[in-house]
Amino acid sequence: MARPKVVFPLLLASCAGHASAQSELITYSWMYREVLAGTNTPVPSPNGLIEPGEAVRLELSVGFTPEVGATILYSPPPGTGMGTVAGLNEILFDLVGTGSAEGVWSLVERAPGWGIGGAGSVTSGGTVIEDAAAGQLILPGQTANGANPVSAIWIGVWNPSSFVPRSVTWTSMPYFPGSTITCSLTVLAGQTAAGEPIYTNKWVPGQFGSVVVPIVPAPGLGATLLVVGMLAARRRR
Hints:
The chain has about 240 residues and is mainly β. The protein is built from two helices and 13 strands; from the N terminus they run αβββββββββββββα.
């Protein structure tokens, strides 16, 4: 059973007002790769189509604005003030498949250094991954990872349950129902007396993306289906 999602309306409303004024945004970009079924091994000759014996490795990369070094207003602890963007902090999302997206998931992972929270729970016959998260934990004395974008921050291998010809769309959606503010930036808020950085985070809107995956039947199946259709038509005469 998926855990309930708690919305903090006052915090979200406050962050939304600041974000709209400063164009703060985290963008989700999806792509897929053809891999051998049940593995993370790329197929020798990819052609953009998912065929029998193949699976789909979905990859999420995340970019953000403004750039590292930009000055923004923050409100979480250590108090409201102006700080500088230091990198991505955390993303939270659900991933939903449409177009007969049933299947089995494997190798659901986060990029090294971004394994905060859970990778997500598979539900609804493989058509949904709920409560997926990724982020960085900055220990005292460490410096934030300022990569922008963060490439392949989340990956998962989807093995379709059938190869009936169709297009399956995978769409990332907000973690908090009714709000796009489910991701945050790392903000440098100051320094300690010893000169170590003090970081906080700011929740900002997310622009959620999708990717379309084409599924094709086994070679010769199209001709077989055509013959079956012709025989059925003859019986009806």
